[in-house]
Amino acid sequence: MSTPVQLYLTRLAASFSSGAPEGDGRLGVALTLADGHQYEAGATDQVPLSSLAAPLVYALALEDLGLPRVLERIGTVPTPDQRHLLDVEPETGRALNPLHDAGVVAATALVKGRGGRDRAARLLQLASSLLDREVSVTDTATRAEEKTLDRPRAAAWLMKSLDAFDADPTAVLSDLARLRAVTVSVQEVATIATVFALGGVHPHTGDRVFSDSTARAVTSILASCGLTTRDPLWAMNVGQPGWASASGGVTMLVVPGHLGLALRSDELDENGMSVRGMSALRTLVEEFELHASDVVSSPLSALRSHYRVDQAPSGTSRTAEALHALEAHGEHAHLLELGGHIGFSQVEALVHVIADLPETLETLVFDIRSVHSISAPARRLIGQWIGHAIASGVDVVLADRTETLLDELVATADESVEVNLPPVHREGEADPATYDPTTAAPQFVFFASRSQAMQWCEQRLLARHAPHLFPQDAQEALHSPLMQHLEEDDAALLESMMETRRFHDGQVIRRAGQPFGGIYVITRGEVVLTGQSTGGRRTRRTVLSPGMTFGEMALGQPGRQPSTVRARGEVTTQVLTAQVMYALQEASPQLAMRLWESLARDAYTALAQLVRETGALQD
Questions:
Q1: I need a surface site. Which of 67, 115, 245, 302 has the fewest CB within 10 A?
Q2: What's the pLDDT tens digit per position in 525-538?
Q3: Collapsing DSSP states into helix, strand and coil, what is residue 198?
Q4: How many CB atoms lie within 10 A of CB 99?
Q5: Band (433; pLDDT cuts 50, 70, 90)
Q6: What is the domain count for the chain?
Q7: What is the dihedral of CA 439, 442, 448, 450, to 10 degrees?
Q8: Nearest CA-CA partner of 62 in 100, 17, 110, 99
């Protein structure tokens, strides 16, 4: 099924091709997004790369020599593409910029043979990397392209006469002609543009074709010396880096960080640009909000939601007193849900949001599961802020499905002398003390899910503001949320019917799929509940500590244990076995009824917590 973008481009191509004869003036348009998705409509025939080779040659020269050395031979001065005039710097003979005639041949001369390949082979290798296919050019095509290089040839000999060009002009022009003769489709031109838009990374292969600095330099040249020198209204109508080729009427547009765009139509205007292509491009820029000055999202767009920890609880079963304590002290712990890309402006905006949080803030959670990228400058700023927050006594908690963004943050901090990032305690570490919520010192902690992070924050709040609710011994632990609904005599009778069971670190206590085996009350240690996500991957759901229960969920449909329970460290439990519960229904039906009532109340309490969490996430 066609997507809205594909349908739009198809209509656009048809609209601007109306009245044009087949193969002459018909519009072709292609789009390649940052995630590699491609769209194409209209004319699809291939044309020579021609003038579009200029930014590619410049990029390869930058990769070989670096910007300072390239600037010795090629400037960055915007200049009109005048047909009757060849311009170089009068004093030095240096080319004014790398896109016009003198600059293209100067950049080509800077590219040398390397790794057993001569200059021509390296240029074709670059084209192969960009087009993701093996490129070859016939001698006939090369000679045909050479015949179009009268102005570059004149520029080469002019610079040669001024001692600003030390290579053989004939050889340089032959190698340049071979690259210009490479045939490309409009879709492939869009992909080349996307490589520059992504900082040098290929959107399909994921390979790095150019360094960040090279991609930035080329994109900057396309913005300052590109089509603004041909079209006086380019900055007003389009406002993005771009370049064009008269051969085939191809226009290439780079939208940094987002996409690459290409259009082609043979009919040209007095500036050597496609008439239909430019008209269609202006429409696309307007419809897709691609202009550099369009404000399509504010710096606060990264902030998806913000709430106190008690407004979206973890779902852990707790006593009424514990829930009341969390609500009373919830202002001390807040969660920010972030999404999309985080750059400098987003970090700056988030810092202001955090500054407006209560002065009593003790713990701040960042849910970054929907964040797809963080720029290097933003990572440095975040690292600095985390270090400052920890030093100020505030816990910083990250929740994400993978550790990719965390690892990037840590790597950036390690490389920067400006960032003093404290060690991060990852939830899966062997020593539970490293992320113990009762530890007094502020902590930098990572969890693989939001619920785990929220549970840790709840424990943190209770440890700081209601430590009396933490069981001090096994007897107190027996007064679990399940027991709180029973009369004292009933609770004592049930306790007398329980049996003690101990488990070693890592031992499976209950396995997912087992039938109901009783209700377990933890009196010492912690257990980890895990289940299976989509695709069969094991995911950790939650950690239970003394005073909490497990096993009762198997009482529901289909009567099976929904998750696997493992001991973390040495664990002691008191178990009301299934056999005892069934016997209780025969021997003391009234007590059994009160027990079932207690189980139901506990289940509805957990359901209410889940509803609150879901509501908070949807607000």
A1: 115
A2: 888 888 765 555 55
A3: coil
A4: 27
A5: very low
A6: 4
A7: 100
A8: 110
Contact yes or no for 56/126 (Cβ under 8 A): yes
Angle formed at CA 399 by CA 200 and CA 541, multiple of 5 degrees: 130
**Among the listed residues 70, 15, 7, 61, the one whose alpha carbon sits nearest the alpha carbon of residue 39:** 7
Round to whole Å and give the CA distance between 341 and 199: 15
Token couple for 62: 């930058």
Does the pLDDT of residue 23 top 80, yes or no?
no
Q: Are 529 and 564 in contact (CB under 8 A)?
A: yes
CA dihedral angle for residue 311, residue 313, residue 317, residue 320, rounded to 10 degrees:
-20
Percent of the chain's residues with pLDDT above 90: 44
Tokens 């879901």, located at residue: 614
Tokens of 166: 């030390």
Q: Which of 137, 61, 125, 128 minimizes the C-alpha distance to 99?
A: 61
Which residue would you say has higher pLDDT here, 188 or 595? 188
The CATH number that applies at residue 258 is 3.40.710.10
d(CA 92, CA 73): 9
pLDDT at 21 over 70: no
Average pLDDT along the chain: 86
Domain ranges, residue 172:
48-183
Q: Retrieve residue 594's tokens.
A: 């009160």
Looking at the structure, tell me whether residues 33 and 61 fall in a common domain: no
| Rounded Cα–Cα distance for residues 500 and 506 (Å) | 18
Among 267, 292, 317, identify where a domain stops: 292
SS3 sequence of 227-278:
HHHCCCCHHHHCCCCEEEECCCCEEEEEECCCEEEEEECCCECCCCCEHHHH
Q: In 10 A of CB 72, how many CB atoms? A: 12
DSSP symbol at 505: T
The tokens of 392 are what?
A: 């100020």
Whole-angstrom distance, CA of residue 67 vs CA of residue 74: 10
Using the 3D structure, point to which of 256, 273, 292 is the last residue of a domain: 292
The whole-angstrom separation of Cα 455 and Cα 461 is 10
Q: Is the pLDDT of residue 300 over 80?
A: no
Query: Do 71 and 33 share a structural domain?
Result: no
Q: Distances from the Cα of 16 to the Cαs of 4, 5, 24, 284, in angstroms?
A: 18, 16, 12, 12
Read off the pLDDT of residues 562-575 as tens digits, 9 standing for 90 and up: 889 999 889 999 99
pLDDT tens per residue across span 94-139:
999 999 999 999 999 999 999 889 999 999 999 999 999 999 999 9
Assess whether 305 and 424 both reside in one domain.
yes
The CATH number given to whatever domain includes residue 326 is: 3.30.750.24
Residues 97, 28 share a domain: no
| d(C-alpha 365, C-alpha 344), whole Å | 20
CA distance 25 to 264: 8
Residue 45 has a pLDDT of 87
547: region left, alpha or beta (phi > 0 left; psi from -120 to 50 alpha): left
Q: Give CA–CA dist 330/268, Å, rounded.
A: 66
The answer to whether the Cα torsion of 324, 325, 326, 330 is positive or negative is positive
CA atoms of 561 and 552, how far apart (whole Å): 8
Measured at the alpha carbon of residue 193, what is the angle toward residues 187 and 198, in degrees to the nearest 5?
125
